[in-house]
Specification:
- The complex is a heterodimer of chains A (231) and B (326).
- The longest helix of chain A is centred in the first third of the chain and has 16 residues, at 27-42.
- Chain A is 24% helix and 28% strand.
- In chain A, the strands form three sheets. Chain A has a seven-stranded mixed beta sheet.
- Chain A is α+β, with helices and mostly antiparallel strands.
- In chain A, helix 2 crosses helix 3 (77-92).
- Chain B is of the alpha+beta class and 326 residues long.
- Chain B is built from four helices and 20 strands.
- Chain B has helices spanning 35-44, 195-202, 274-278, 293-324, and strands spanning 2-7, 13-15, 53-56, 62-65, 69-77, 80-82, 85-87, 93-95, 100-103, 108-116, 150-152, 181-186, 206-208, 216-220, 235-236, 241-244, 250-253, 260-261, 265-269, 285-290.
- In chain B, a hairpin with a 7-residue loop joins strand 13 and strand 14 (216-220).
- In chain B, helix 1 (35-44) runs parallel beside helix 4.
- The chains are: A alpha+beta (231), B alpha+beta (326).
- The interface between A and B is large, with 51 and 42 residues.
Chain lengths: 231, 326
């Protein structure tokens, strides 16, 4: 049994509160964060705006006016939402077994796409082939989305190829770039400045603005990167 | 029924009160920097308070009206002129077809808002008209307004004659200043500040640096945190979150902030005072005053009650005018 870490609830401004299950990157904590976020989306309270899961926390945004009107027995909106969160943590939002099949993301790692492959290989002291081999040999978990619309924070990258961020970020990382930073992996869903080490590029659209679910990936998804045969 | 952008201004975009329920996909709420201004001028015109408006920075646009309508301007004051007549902020005014709206100089504030009765025809994306420049979606083709853009006006659903110029009571208008004291509450990492750091947070004047935009304001002052490196795993942040950067300087997250961050959250600007900081620009100053959570909520509720009174008086006005019209 994994030991329960200490759960903290604190305000994130006067219109939001964060439930923090721990302070490390772990699948267990992330599952709890996603489960709590899903619970509130499926069981919204009056004044609920949205819930946002992160690595090991979920933040609940609310409308002060509606919460205060709907829960007059509490002296503040924060207390009311905290009470709802406490209840949900106790019983209702236990993580369910996740059965998401893994999603395959094909990618190129030619010199034009894999801008930092040589650097990562040198840093790891292995060949570029080995870097790609080690990188594609892992099933990654999407812990959270952020930074850009549809940008996924995934883990975890094999220790042998983990490479810190670049000292000074690139002003323009091409859309679709697949990159690592320490033991995190990510896909640049849009062209953007960025400091992660780029190992390749995918043609798969990660950000789908015209769809009701505007991101291909969601927290909790499992990802496999596969090399394109043409490489 | 449309308007023509004759000169675009430096950063002119369509905004409403923001795009919610999509932060978990990394899509920020965006929306107007100064919500109070948008809500007030929309209510004044009889619009929904979330109706899309044009957010202007200075230099501001020049706009030609191809329709008779009513409009209102709020937020920053850019010395508005309609043809040759000067136009006051916070007062609705009639616009004749063929009139040109100009903004001569920045008298106060840094973001001015233009609302028209009935609102603008916009590109809706994920239930909002706000322009998301990073995603190139929403507002007007997902971009800032340019020379020659023509924006359609929506038909106002009710036909009524409003008094030519209704005005918002000064007591409900935010107390804007170029050097405001803005109230904050503690953030989760406030406890990391030393006694001296806490003192510096609330007892000095911060300068808004030139590295400030709709995403965030970089403040310059005596560092509130010493060089102790503190990076947290990423979690959600919000409009008004005050983060301490590794060099001890502070950043205030604004409307276009990213959805998550990993810097220590020292404090948060209370909702009531967000409009005050939203109107600041480079080289303006700000000071912080700590309040408790209850006070922050009560101040937010107080503003909502005042807005409700304004809404009631505007709709009463509409009913009275309807009865009096032939």
């Amino acid at each position: 049994m994994m030991s329960e870490s200490k759960t903290r609830i604190f305000s994130l401004g006067d219109s939001a509160l964060t439930v923090e299950f721990g302070s490390s990157i772990s699948t267990g904590l992330n599952k709890r964060a996603i489960a709590l976020s899903d619970f509130f989306r499926q069981n919204p309270f009056p004044g609920f705006v949205e819930s946002v899961p992160a690595y090991a926390s979920t933040t609940i945004f609310f409308d002060i006016w509606t919460v205060r009107k709907s829960f007059p027995e509490f002296s503040s909106a924060f207390d009311a939402v905290k009470h709802l969160a406490d209840q949900a943590i106790d019983s209702k939002s236990r993580p369910k077994a996740e059965s998401n099949p893994s999603i395959e993301i094909p990618f190129h790692f030619d010199a034009k796409s894999a801008l930092d492959l040589d650097f990562v290989a040198k840093h790891a002291g292995i060949s570029t082939r080995d870097v790609i081999e080690i990188f594609t040999n892992v099933t990654y978990r999407v812990f959270m989305l952020g930074f850009l619309p549809g940008f996924s924070y995934m883990g975890e990258v094999d220790e042998r190829i983990a490479t810190p961020r670049k000292d000074s970020p690139r002003l323009c990382v091409p859309k679709g770039s697949i990159a690592i930073a320490g033991k995190q992996a990510g896909i640049y869903s849009l062209e953007s400045p960025g400091g992660w080490q780029i190992l390749g590029r995918t043609d798969v659209e990660m950000f789908k603005p015209d769809q009701a679910s505007p991101s291909l990936l969601k927290p909790g998804d499992k990802i496999r990167f596969v090399t394109k045969l043409s490489d | 029924m449309s308007i023509l952008i004759q000169k675009p201004g430096i950063l002119t975009t369509i905004q409403d009160l923001g795009r919610y329920k999509y932060r978990r996909f990394g899509i920020n709420p965006g929306g107007a920097m100064d919500h109070a201004a948008v809500r007030l001028i929309n209510i004044l015109l009889g619009n929904q308070e979330n109706e899309a408006v044009i957010e202007m920075h200075f230099p501001a646009p020049q706009i030609l009206f191809y329709a008779d309508t009513a409009a209102a301007i709020g937020g920053g004051d850019f010395d508005t002129r309609l043809d040759d007549k000067s136009v006051e902020n916070w007062r609705s005014f009639r616009v004749k077809k063929g009139s040109i709206l100009k903004f001569d100089k920045k008298s106060s504030g840094n973001r001015s808002y233009l609302a028209v009765r009935g609102g603008f025809e916009t590109d809706r994306w994920l239930d909002s008209s706000s322009t998301n420049l990073a995603a190139k979606m929403g507002g007007f083709n997902g971009r800032k307004l340019e020379d020659g853009d023509r924006i359609d006006l929506r038909q106002f659903p009710q036909h009524y004659t409003q008094p030519a110029s209704a005005k918002i009571a000064p007591s409900i208008i935010p107390q804007y200043a170029a050097f405001p004291t803005v109230r904050i509450i503690r953030g989760a990492e406030y406890c990391l500040l030393s006694e001296h750091g806490r003192d510096l947070l609330c007892n000095q004047n911060f300068l808004i640096s030139k590295y400030s935009d709709r995403m965030g304001f970089r403040l310059t002052g005596k560092p509130v945190m010493t060089s102790k490196k503190c990076e947290l795993i990423s979690s959600a942040v919000s409009f008004g979150t005050i983060q301490a950067l590794p060099d001890g300087q502070l950043t205030v997250l604004m409307a276009d902030h990213q959805t998550a961050g990993g810097y220590p959250r020292i404090g948060h600007i209370i909702s009531r005072d967000l409009p005050l900081i939203a109107q600041l620009g480079t080289n303006d100053k700000v000071a912080f005053h700590m309040v408790n959570h209850e006070e922050a909520e009560n101040l937010a509720l107080e503003f909502e009650r005042e807005l409700n009174i304004l809404k009631a008086s505007v709709s009463l006005n509409i009913v009275v005018s309807q009865k009096n019209s032939p």
